[in-house]
Sequence to fold (97 residues):
Amino acid sequence: MPELDPLVGDMSLTQTRRSAARPKPGLQITMNSLYKTELIRDHGPWKGVDDVELATLGWVHWFNNDRIHGTLDDGPPAEFEAAYLAAQGANQPVGIQ
Fold:
């Protein structure tokens, strides 16, 4: 039986940490560290996986739309993208068309 992760409680199994030990690209490591610091450690303890999933959805929405980003003239990414698309004369969102 897998051991329980003492940091998060009964939701995260140490078995999943073994796969996390593999080398990862730098951006993925940075994002994972931000996620753990800003959400998991600062807002716990968590009662279950559902609580973590719901909080993760909120964090991802905040990160992609509302956070202030220094390299985007201290504005949120969604606002920067809207201004970029307006300057390009495009009304279509970026992505698969």
Observations:
- Confidence is low (pLDDT under 50) at residues 1-6, 9-15.
- The beta strands are 4-5, 9-13.
- The radius of gyration is 18 Å.
